[in-house]
Structure formats: structure tokens, C-alpha cells
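Folding follows sequence. Below is one example:
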Amino acid sequence: MNIRNLYRVLLSALAATASVGLGLTTTLAPLQAQETNPAPPSGKFIVHEWGTFTTFSGSNGVHLDFRPLKDQELPGFVFDRANQSGYLWFGKGRLKTRVRMETPVTYFYTDVERRIHVDVEFPRGLLTEFYPPVRSQYPPFDDKTATSEDGEPIGNGKLHWGEITLIPTAQLRPPVSDILTSQILGDHLATTIFPEAHGNHYDAARHTDSAIVHMRLESEATKTPTGQGPTGDFFEKFLFYRGVGKFEIPVSVTSEVPGVLNVTNHGREVLRRAIVYQLNGETITYEIVPNVAPGKSVTVRQSNRPVEMNTVAEILRQELVAAGLYEKEATAMINTWTSSWFMEQGTRLFYMVPQETTDRELPLHISPQPDEQLRVMVGRVEIMSASEEQRLIGIVKQAAEQRLTNLNQQLAQGVEHPVAPIIVPEEFRQLGRLAEPALHRLRDVSLDANVRNEAEAILAQLAVDRALEEVQSRDAGQVPNN
């Protein structure tokens, strides 16, 4: 085999490795980016961002507070408020939030090396995780407040990266005589310079044409309470951050009649490109929501025609492209959120958040100013319908009856002080972070005192379980990725 053919084999192997590196542990194959929407034109400085605002509502459409108890796991190299400040542990599960601001990634496109300055604010939120690390974060991390009953206050969040360097990947190619060799070496460097994330959904976001982000932190440049903040050189394909907020999104969904949703637009812009998605057991259905004018509502009847998961994923990917994302960006977003968006049981509404709302709630400051700055946030409303509320009330009622039966059996056996442990039904375990607001909702709407009492007992048990997990994480010296 001659050297040129060997290089071609190596290049194919590298491409295969990059494909496997998506590591999606789902039945939905990773979507492939199309080339109908290419990278930006030469000479431009362009910034694109995508992310998700997640909320939860009962059948009456009221958005409920919840705790971010379980999320898709992040790689260990990602920083949070605690380890940025030199501490080991951050009790994010204590924070009660209205909006979960999930995984915005900010891509930079340039064909020349640039030094820029970047900050992001969250006036009605707290920025909890990020990468690369930052020069400073606000409010400063307080370990005593973070481990209090309610955790840190939510508000006045800010991350200050300050100066970062953007490096086009083409500049990584060495000036060797053989062009293919140069490409192989440059591509290999561009895929190995980042921290290891293969097998994690985080890696999917890297598969775009964006420039490399380089952050250098000197020891004296990082302001932390302990004086032990991160130092060194950090590389990534984007800026990553996420957090929790307390503000009202401009969309509500009521579901008080089985199979019927009423979608209301409280914002100042037309609500476009919204999709209702439902996974019930193994059956997937969806409906496209007609455009909703400001201050208006539309009624959507849920479909009973099952479809394949790939069908809905591709529809949503096309909507992301229609909103302005490049093809590879839209594909990266879908592949990042496959398991959360399409494989969790329940009913949810996806819609495109107007950039006006994103810029108001999450100001992003970049200087020098880009030629184009696009921010595509997907709103995700988890909906508990009236029929789902009744189903869960039945499960809580059954749990209450089972506990009473256990107590009566112990009394009949002559047990002097009978004890019936509180068992969290598996259906609520599966709800994860949404179990708490769901139980609060059931407690409020049920007319059965036994159901209300049992819902309260299950809530208390979930709090105990959460506290035990925190203790175990702290004893193990680990930082849980909540």
C-alpha cells in the first residue's frame, strides 16, 4: 500500500471515529447534517447559539416550580459554580426553579484568528454550569448558602469569560507538501485537542464547522473565594453554559379535555413553528400547531396516528434550519437532545422562542460586535393533562391504600408500633425532576384527603432521598452532574 492510500485509509478511520464519538445510547440513529445550508461566507464574523428553555405545567396551564434533580449527565471536565470557586460540591438539586435553561452552546465562525470578549447575563436566573471556566462569576459562590435548605438565591447571574481566542480549524493544518497529509494532521489535532467526551451527549454539539475557542487563565486572573480557581489552557468548539431561572415564558398550554390542547401566546410576536409531541408507551404521535398571533389561542387536537421517531426528529431539525441555524448546528442540537426530547414519556410542546425574549432574559455581550448574531432557543413545555393527572392520582391512591393495608396487617399480627415505609411509586421515579411539581399539582387538585396526605408523604420521601444522594456524593468527593 503506497503512502497516499495509507493516508486515505487513516482519514476514513478518523471520520468513522468521529461518527462513533456521538455515542448516542438510543434507538434513534444520529441524524446526518445536510450541506444545503453551508458555513458562513469568507471575511465574516458570525455567532450562532442554540439552547432550550424547559418549563412544566399542570392541566390548567400554570407553570410550576421544580427542582433540577435529574438531567442528562455532563462530562466531568465541565465546571459548575462550586469547582470554579475551588469547592468540590454544589447542591443544585436544592434550587427550586420555574425555567430550566438547558445547554446553550455558542458557536463562533471566522476565517481569521480573532481575540474577542464575551460575557453572558441571567438577570432573573443563576448560571450553574459552564465550559471553558470563567474569569469570574456572579453572584460569587457561597458554600454555606449553597448547602442551605433552599440553596442559593436565583437572580443576577453572570459569567465573565473576558478575552478568548478564536482559531479557525483550517489554521491547524501544518504546511507540509502533501495536501492530504496536512488535512489528516489538522483534522486529527482539531478532534483531539478537546477534553474526552466520547459516549456523552455533550460530544454531539462539537460536530460543526465552528472555530476553536481557546481560553487561557493565569493563576492571578481567576477571582475565587478560596483562591484555588482553574488555571491553564482550555479548548472547545463552543462556549457552553446552563442555569435555572424564575421568569414567565410567553406561552401557556391548557389540557383540561382529553386529547385537546389550548396553546396561548402571551408574547408580542407571532408564535411560529410549534409542535406537540407525545410518547405514550411505545406509541409516538405529533401535531403541528398553527401560527398563534400575540394575545391569541389556538386549539390542537392530539393525533392518534402513530409515527416513527425519526420523522418527528427530522421535522424539528428542519424547523431549526428555518429559524436560521446551519444544517450541522441543527443536526448537532437534535443529536444532543435525542433521549430527552424524544424518549421521555409524556406530552410536550416544542416552540421557537423569539430572539427578543432570549436577548431580554439572557443578554449575551460579545465585542467586537459580530456581523451576525443568531440565537435559536427552543421552548419546551412539559404538559400534565387532566387525564394524566387522574392516572397519577390513581397511583397515589393505590400507594396510600397499600400502606394502610400494611399497617393493618402489622396490627393484626400484634405489632405494638407498626411502621409502613413510604414507597415512591416507580411512575414518579421515572418522572425524575418533574416528580415534585407533579405531586404538588396532584395534592392541589385531588378531593381525596388520603391522596393529598400520601402525595405529601411521597414528596417528603423524595426530599430524604435527595439528601442521602447529596451526602453520598460529598462523602465520595464527587461533584454530581444534576
Summary: The chain is about 30% helix and 25% strand. Residues 93 and 293 are 37 Å apart (CA to CA).
